[in-house]
Design goal:
- Strands 1-2 form a two-stranded antiparallel sheet.
- A hairpin with a 3-residue loop joins strand 1 and strand 2.
- It has 117 residues and is mainly alpha-helical.
- The protein is elongated.
- The protein has a domain of 60 residues.
- Keywords: Membrane, Transmembrane, Transmembrane helix.
């Protein structure tokens, strides 16, 4: 354990992006130290006002989450309404025609595309 302390002694670390793809611990060299934003308790701006706008990757992930939750709600609605109720949605889902198969194949393809993004 002591040899690790000696190897890391005098170095500074931060959390940040590595090549804009991965988030993790980075070593800061003395030439590239960042200035910290001073905390001003009297400032009316919150920490959210200092955040950057959402990136494209964040937007895609939120869209994937909304799509997946919407599909989950659709499936739960189908499971809850199964019974004596004869709705057009239930008859469409029970028909097992090419339309239902294409619909759920497109759902699976979309989820797979978002999942691997």
């Amino acid at each position: 354990m002591a040899h690790i302390r000696r190897a890391l002694d005098g170095r500074q670390f931060r959390l940040g992006y590595d090549n804009e793809t991965r988030y993790g611990i980075q070593v800061i060299s003395p030439a590239s130290t960042r200035k910290a934003i001073p905390a001003n308790p009297e400032s009316k701006s919150s920490m959210f006002s200092q955040m950057l706008p959402p990136t494209w990757e964040f937007t895609v992930r939120v869209a994937a989450l909304v799509f997946t939750l919407g599909l989950l709600i659709l499936i739960l609605y189908y499971e809850i309404t199964v019974g004596p109720v004869n709705s057009t949605f239930e008859s469409f889902m029970n028909s097992q025609t090419i339309g239902v198969r294409i619909l759920f194949a497109s759902f699976g393809t979309t989820i797979d595309a978002f999942w691997n993004y």
